[in-house]
Specification:
Blueprint lengths: L20 H9 L12 H18 L6 E4 L2 H15 L6 E5 L5 H9 L2 E5 L9 H7 L4 E7 L11 H10 L3 E5 L23 E3 L13 E5 L2 H5 L3 E2 L7 E2 L8 H14 L2 H23 L4 E2 L5 E4 L3 H9 L5 E2 L5 E4 L6 H16 L5
Parallel strand pairs: 2-3, 2-4, 4-5, 5-6
Antiparallel strand pairs: 1-7, 6-7, 8-9, 10-11, 11-13, 12-13
Helix pairs in contact: 1-8, 2-8, 3-4, 9-11
The structure holds pyridoxal-5'-phosphate.
């Protein structure tokens, strides 16, 4: 096998990043372990408990409960699954803001749950009146996003939690990407600030762990029990995870990254990434483009198609929001130097005569 993975030097669209060196090393050591069989692979099962303890500390969860999932998709599916399993209605629905990750569509599909999406306000946050009008006695889960995929926005979580409580639904917070930057902001998003039932927080995004390392957290054992099924041929007796065999590498790398970086390293990274996002937004605004002001280290800019395509041809890995704007995620591997080169390419493409 001769293939080499791509370099991160021109990757501006990804929510994954280069793992911290300690996370990389830990992942390699635990490659051949399977936390899906915890009584056989006890060392990695113990590490998973450590990972959940660390995630609980970061998210203000008093009793650590949850597991290291394959990513945000699995964690979101599990939140929907738990809510559906705990509910009595034969016609369950979930209410998710339009900014919710597409994993909720997958969840609704595989779990046969109706997905109701609520429009956003002009600030790209869930519109509370719309959410309120969509919930009913069959709503089993309301979702709030803490760090949206396209604009990095945080929904009004306290108010969404109130709406969920009013109809006896569970409240899920998707902090898959935002969970490792929000601790250094003024936002209220934690279990000890708001009544939250389940949360997604992924070490393999801003947490700088190796892929796959997602996080699913639950506020009560009842929720985890609603996910558990019997496991006849294993030494352990039940399993709450969606997948069977899982990656011990993901768990070990998550623990190593959090040991190294929580909290000071993550704070430094957040501050640096935020400065980069603001610098890039200013650079585009100075050139006459409309940029959506970053509130977390992620920005969107309205660029002409020709310029977007030109940047892609220069090798930049960039993506668009659903409204068509350029979307740049200032992950840990994204440096100021890299962004300066990117802006130089923007200038060069704009200076180039048309059709040349
Ligand atoms: N939730 C949010 C807010 C995300 O941004 C993403 C991915 O970018 C996910 C969930 C899905 O995570 P994964 O790709 O790890 O399954």
């Amino acid at each position: 096998m001769r293939a080499e993975p791509q370099e991160f030097g021109r990757v501006l669209s990804s929510m994954c990043t280069t793992p911290h060196p300690a996370a990389r090393e830990a992942a390699e050591r635990f490659l051949a372990t399977n936390p899906g069989d915890p009584d056989t692979y006890q060392a990695v099962a113990d590490l998973e408990a450590e990972a959940i303890g660390q995630l609980a500390e970061i998210t203000g969860l008093s009793e650590p409960r949850g597991y290291v999932a394959s990513g945000g998709t699995e964690a979101n599916i599990q939140a929907v699954r738990a809510a559906r399993n705990l509910a009595v209605t034969p016609e369950p629905n979930i209410v998710v803001p339009d900014s919710g990750h597409f994993s909720f569509s997958k969840a609704a599909g595989v779990l046969n749950v109706e997905l109701r999406t609520a429009p956003l306000t002009e600030e790209y946050r869930a519109d509370l009146d719309a959410v309120q009008s969509l919930v009913d006695e069959n709503t089993v889960l309301v979702v709030g996003v803490a760090g949206t995929t396209e604009y990095g926005r945080v929904d009004p979580l306290q108010e969404l939690s109130d709406v969920a409580r009013d109809v006896d639904a569970l409240f899920h917070v998707d902090a898959a990407w935002g969970g490792f930057v929000l601790p250094f902001t003024e936002y209220e998003w934690r279990f000890d600030q708001i009544p939250i039932d389940t949360m997604t927080i992924d070490p393999h995004k801003m947490g700088q762990a190796a892929v796959p390392a997602g996080g699913f957290l639950a506020s009560s054992s009842e929720i985890l029990d609603a996910l558990a099924i019997d496991t006849p041929y294993l030494e352990s007796t039940d399993q709450a995870t969606l997948t069977g065999t899982r990656s011990g590498a993901g768990i070990a790398s998550a623990v190593a990254a959090m040991e190294e970086l929580w909290p000071a390293g993550y704070r430094d990274q957040y501050e640096q990434s935020m400065r980069n996002a603001e610098w890039l937004a200013d650079a585009f605004t100075d050139r006459g483009f409309d940029a959506v002001t970053p509130t977390l280290p992620l920005l969107a800019v309205d660029l002409p198609d020709e310029l977007f395509t030109g940047l892609r041809e220069e090798g930049w890995r960039i993506s668009r929001t659903s409204a068509g704007e350029l979307r740049v995620v200032c992950m840990p591997h994204v440096t100021r130097e890299q962004l300066s080169t990117f802006i130089s390419d923007v200038d060069a493409l704009r200076a180039r005569p048309k059709n040349s």
